[in-house]
């Protein structure tokens, strides 16, 4: 176990260094003077301002010294400031992160709620029409890009039925119901692909489990089908399900970019696209490094948690 | 769909990230549900039975056949748009210039006749017209070219670099393998879409070829792993041992024994990977960060039309369907070939 943790931690540190280094280095390769690129296009480029930017970014220091200075600052939560809006990058992230987290969590939960019964149905009715229909649905779910599904949801629920708004995000502080009204569509758009992935996993896992002897003995004891499926048979699948939920959660943090843009949800991804459109380079860099680092961290945590829970992995 | 026999003999049904398998290299690649590596490992070594393309086609289940036909149509349409228009008086038969705003343009008022914009499908405009009165069918076919280029360039790049690297280290083993695979693991841990966004936006890359190469680069780890797993399996086969025993040079074994056996399974993976690549380009296009208008891409067509979804949902519908069908078709055909390989391996 100690060895497992040690390898994972070494790999984590290496990956984090690589991710931060890569994001930092991107600015090095900007064409022309970096100060020019970092300042917003409409800023008046007075010599004082240029000197200030150069000093802020330590542009006169050698490259590696600058990288480590930047990394040290980043570790203490200082990712620099936007020269377009004068906000601290870390402040931008902390104010918008809860919204993105809410969407990701809702998306995953929705996906799980739908995926588990669908996967169980497919496994229980393996080869029957119920299985064919759900498997076909899963195939389609895996193939529809989430922004297309999002537009479909907008067209159906916001434009035609007018049940739910397509934008104008309500914060949680505006009341739970109002908040959920604006959150349900983007969360559903995120959930589709996840649902397909999860239910395929549950189905494949459960087909194996249902052939085990202890299921047979549960049947022999006369336990109800529902009890066997949801309690006995689901339990061994839950571990792999948790793993993939964890990994996909990390990926969703980045994946919300498109959905947030589509629904104008003021989360971290939408802010990233704004920064891209305004060429607010330090914000792009800060958000990129933040998402990348969280992604790497979450993956490592999931891995570790998994090896802690499953003795088979722990031993090898 | 083509999924009925699954479960008993099918590693194909183990999705990404299922733990507990020997080679746990199974995180979702680039954040999406790409299949676990094991599904693409075929430790055969038998020379595949030669089948003509027609025989392969006839052996496909119905939906896979439909998928294959759709893909052939898309590819043919995309290539057709690259023909020399001067041969046809400026416009290809059946297609209009995708940038041509033909209808009722009134130069004095500087606007288009109202009747011709956002038209519903008709005989004159098979799939209607967009907000600038351009023919949607023509733009759709021209957009297929962008998807085709991205899919081919990105996949070929990842395939050649990653596939070569994976075959090599799976055969050579030792420190080279450990070293290469740890670098690959680090690259795989990157959230690719975010890095892609950052790269494309900071450097203002709008060139299709460069975007494709970047997408391909971020896909390298996946190809490397598939190729390595296959190469490992094949290196342990009798015919490789036999080749070694009679003193064949390692380079020759790699070229004549390993790589020819790695390629077929890699091709099945490449199909599924190209579906993913097309979605990534579509997403970038949708965000306005890929090839710029007036060049049509399916992604930017969807983006431009979505504000008019109330007036004319057709203009969102058609490019969305084109993109979805293509992705679905690539997945279906890729799965078909992967299962075909797996069956061949199981028969051994």
Can you give keywords for this protein?
heterodimer; A: 316 residues; mainly alpha; MetI-like fold; 13 helices; B: 348 residues; two-stranded antiparallel ribbon; 10 helices
CATH architecture of chain A: Orthogonal Bundle
CATH superfamily of the domain at 127-347 in chain B: MetI-like
The shape of chain A, in one word, is globular
- Give the C-alpha Rg of chain A: 24 Å
CATH class of chain A: Mainly Alpha
Count, helices of chain A: 13
Number of domains of chain A: 1
Number of helices of chain B: 10
Q: At the fourth CATH level, what is the homologous superfamily of chain A?
A: MetI-like
CATH architecture of the domain at 127-347 in chain B: Orthogonal Bundle
CA distance, first residue to last residue of chain B:
27 Å
The proportion of strand residues of chain A reads: under 5%
Q: Numbering strands along the chain, what is their spatial order in the largest sheet of chain B?
A: 1-2
CATH class of the domain at 127-347 in chain B: Mainly Alpha
Give the SSE order of chain A as H and E letters. Answer: HHHHHHHHHHHHH
User: How many beta-strand runs of chain B?
Assistant: 2
How would you describe what is shown here?
The complex is a heterodimer of chains A (316) and B (348). Chain A has helices at residues 2-28, 34-38, 47-56, 63-75, 89-124, 129-143, 146-160, 176-209, 213-220, 225-262, 268-277, 281-309, 311-315. Chain A has 316 residues and is an all-alpha fold. Chain A has one domain: MetI-like (MetI-like fold, Orthogonal Bundle), CATH 1.10.3720.10. With 348 residues, chain B is mostly helical. Chain B has a domain at 127-347: MetI-like fold, CATH 1.10.3720. In chain B, a hairpin with a 4-residue loop joins strand 1 (105-106) and strand 2 (111-112). In chain B, 52% of the residues are buried. The interface between A and B is large, with 74 and 55 residues.
């Amino acid at each position: 176990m100690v060895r497992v943790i040690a390898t994972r931690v070494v790999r984590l540190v290496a990956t984090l260094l690589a991710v931060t280094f890569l994001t930092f280095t991107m600015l090095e390769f900007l064409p022309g003077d970096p100060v020019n690129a970092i300042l917003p296009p409409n800023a008046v480029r007075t010599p004082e301002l240029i000197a200030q930017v150069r000093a802020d970014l330590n542009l006169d220091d050698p490259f590696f010294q600058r990288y480590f200075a930047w990394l040290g600052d980043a570790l203490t939560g200082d990712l620099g400031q936007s020269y377009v809006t004068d906000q601290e990058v870390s402040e931008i992230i902390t104010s918008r992160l809860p919204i993105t987290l809410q969407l990701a969590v809702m998306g995953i939960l929705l996906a799980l709620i739908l995926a588990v019964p669908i996967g169980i149905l497919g496994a229980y009715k393996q080869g029957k029409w119920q299985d064919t229909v759900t498997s076909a649905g899963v195939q389609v779910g895996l193939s529809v890009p989430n922004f297309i599904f999002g537009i479909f949801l907008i067209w159906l629920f916001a434009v035609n039925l007018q049940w739910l708004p397509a934008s104008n995000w309500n914060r949680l502080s505006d009341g739970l119901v109002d908040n959920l009204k604006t959150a349900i569509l983007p969360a559903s758009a995120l959930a589709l692909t996840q649902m397909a992935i999860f239910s395929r996993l549950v189905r494949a896992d459960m087909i194996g489990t249902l052939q085990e002897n202890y299921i047979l003995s549960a049947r022999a004891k006369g336990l109800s089908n529902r009890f066997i499926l949801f309690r006995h048979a689901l339990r061994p699948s839950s571990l792999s399900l948790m793993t993939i939920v964890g990994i996909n959660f990390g990926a969703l943090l980045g994946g919300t970019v498109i959905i947030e843009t589509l629904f104008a949800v003021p989360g971290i991804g939408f802010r990233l696209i704004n920064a891209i459109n305004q060429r607010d380079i330090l914000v792009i860099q800060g958000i990129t490094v933040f998402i990348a680092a969280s992604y790497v961290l979450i993956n490592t945590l999931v891995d570790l948690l998994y090896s802690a829970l499953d003795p088979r992995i722990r031993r090898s | 769909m083509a999924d009925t026999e699954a479960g008993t003999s099918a590693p194909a049904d183990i999705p990404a990230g299922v733990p507990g398998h020997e080679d746990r290299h199974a995180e979702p690649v680039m954040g999406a549900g790409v299949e676990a590596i094991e599904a693409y490992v075929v430790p055969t070594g038998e020379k595949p039975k030669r089948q003509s393309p027609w025989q392969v086609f006839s052996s496909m289940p119905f939906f896979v056949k439909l998928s294959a036909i759709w893909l052939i149509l898309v590819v043919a349409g995309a290539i057709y748009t690259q023909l020399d228009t001067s041969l046809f008086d400026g416009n290809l038969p059946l297609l209009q210039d995708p940038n041509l705003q033909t209808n009722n343009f009134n130069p004095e008022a500087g606007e288009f006749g109202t009747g011709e914009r956002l038209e519903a499908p008709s005989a004159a405009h098979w799939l209607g017209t967009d907000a600038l009165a351009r023919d949607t069918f023509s733009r759709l076919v021209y957009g297929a070219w962008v998807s085709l280029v991205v899919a081919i360039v990105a996949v070929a790049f990842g395939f050649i670099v990653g596939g070569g690297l994976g075959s090599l280290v799976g055969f050579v083993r030792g420190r080279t393998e450990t070293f290469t695979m740890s670098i690959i693991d680090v690259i795989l841990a990157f959230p690719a879409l975010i890095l892609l966004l950052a790269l494309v936006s900071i450097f203002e890359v709008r060139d299709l070829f460069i975007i494709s190469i970047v997408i391909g680069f971020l896909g390298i780890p996946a190809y490397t792993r598939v190729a390595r797993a296959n190469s490992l399996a094949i290196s342990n086969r009798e015919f490789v041992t036999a080749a070694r025993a009679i003193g064949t040079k390692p380079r020759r074994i790699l070229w004549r024994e390993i790589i020819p056996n790695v390629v077929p399974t890699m091709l099945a993976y490449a199909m599924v990977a190209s579906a993913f690549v097309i979605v990534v380009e579509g997403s970038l296009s949708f965000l306005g960060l890929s090839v710029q208008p007036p060049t049509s891409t399916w992604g930017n067509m969807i983006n431009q039309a979505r504000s008019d979804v109330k007036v004319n949902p057709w203009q969102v519908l058609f490019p969305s369907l084109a993109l979805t069908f293509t992705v679905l078709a690539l997945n279906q055909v890729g799965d078909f070939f992967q299962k075909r390989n797996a069956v061949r391996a199981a028969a051994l």
